[in-house]
Amino acid sequence: MTRVPSPFAFWRPDGPNASHRDARTLDLSTWVGSVALANPIMTASGTAGHGAELARYFALHDLGAVVVKSLSVAPWPGNPAPRVHALPGGMLNSVGLQGPGIAAWLTEELPALAATGATVVASIWGRTVEEYAAAAALMAAAPPAVVAVEVNLSCPNLDGGRHLFAQSPAATADAMAATAACGRPRWAKLTPTVTDITEIAAAAMGAGAEALTLVNTALGMAIDPETRRYRLGAGAGGGGLSGAAVHSMAVRAVHDVHVALPDAPIVGVGGVACAPDAVELLLAGARAVQVGTATLADPRAPRRVLDDLARWCRRHGVARVCDLIGGAHE
User: Fold this and answer.
1) Which of 31, 62, 106, 287 is most buried, taking the most CB atoms under 10 A from its CB?
2) Domain ranges across the chain
3) Which residues, 6+ apart, have CB-to-CB distance to 206 below 8 Å?
4) Handedness of CA 64, 303, 156, 77 (dihedral sign)
5) Residue 312's pLDDT band (boundaries 50, 70, 90)?
């Protein structure tokens, strides 16, 4: 299932003044476990749709990967409106994992996405270990364009966060072990809302995860002082906090897990809106980075961050983006 692109296949010069030599000497390629990526920039699950929704804004094959919205075995309606609430440092969302189900996604959404040439990472979730196992079994039928499966163990928007498998090492291990049937590398997506994320990360890796996605949205809530009502339709269930407000939490999680598990491939996510945000996560120990909330405000954000990263590397004399990985620990 590993796709091995040219290190330079998706790099684009900034403009007419960029030299051919510059393009050939900047290596943006990276690896997440056994999965080779042309560059480290991906979309984040839940912010780029189920398929090719972003293709009207930029070429999806330019990204390292497109991570689709989390899918369950059966169609799921999600939470009642309102589902999002803007905050000064980001946003709260309570979409509640709405989706068509894996079977419908495979036949109705994935073909158009695969046709763009995108490298695809699917995302699955469940309320029970059995549902994770069933979702993984269905995902085994995906075509080669799906190079990995992100196992969402940590969405706070389902039943008010009562199904956060990633808050327990044992539950994390059980769910990860149950997803082996997908037949692809599995990335465990974890929550920052724990006492010791390194313990959870170790449990995920021990149960078959090839990589870790750090971090999911954090538990949050907003109440309108005027109406004295919850601002999100999930009510007392609250929602997931994302955007700039969680970036430092993501950096800390990536950093600490890299120290505890230096051989574990990490995908960093949380508040990435520009190259310095991405570089910070790479320096903390991530091998790739996802762009999430920024995409909801600007659908071109993932491509913009990729271009910004190329410019940043040239300005700072970085010839290989992999040289940045874990740089803060040196």
Assistant:
1) 287
2) 20-76+100-219+243-329
3) 173
4) negative
5) very high
Residue 92, pLDDT above cutoff 90:
yes
Q: Return d(Cα 70, Cα 51) in angstroms, integer.
A: 11
Residues in the chain: 330
- DSSP secondary structure string for all residues of 159-207: GGGTT-GGG-HHHHHHHHHHTGGG-S-EEEEE-S-SS-HHHHHHHHHHT
Average pLDDT over every residue of 153-161: 66
Give the residue from 30, 28, 31, 54 showing the smallest Cα distance to 43.
54
Both tokens of 103, joined, read 């079977």
Is the pLDDT assigned to residue 180 strictly greater than 70? yes
pLDDT in tens, 74-91: 999 999 999 999 999 999
User: Reduced to 3 states, what is the DSSP secondary structure of residue 109?
Assistant: helix
Helix axes 247-260, 275-284, angle to 10 degrees: 20
Cα separation, 240 vs 221, in Å, equals 8
Residue 185 burial (C-beta neighbours within 10 Å; 0-12, 13-18, 19+) = buried
Rounded CA-CA distance 42/46 in Å is 12
Which residues are catalytically annotated?
155
| 197-206 vs 247-260: helix crossing angle, rounded to 10 | 60
Q: Please enumerate in sequence order all residues whose Cβ is within 8 A of that of 8, keeping only pairs 6 or more positions apart, or say none.
A: 23, 24, 26, 27, 28
Contact by Cβ (8 Å): 234, 162: no
Residue bearing tokens 């979730």: 125
* 3-class SS of residue 290: strand
The correct answer on CATH 3.20.20.70 for the domain covering 20-76+100-219+243-329 is yes
Q: Counting Cβ atoms within 10 Å, is residue 226 exposed (0-12), middle (13-18) or buried (19+)?
A: exposed
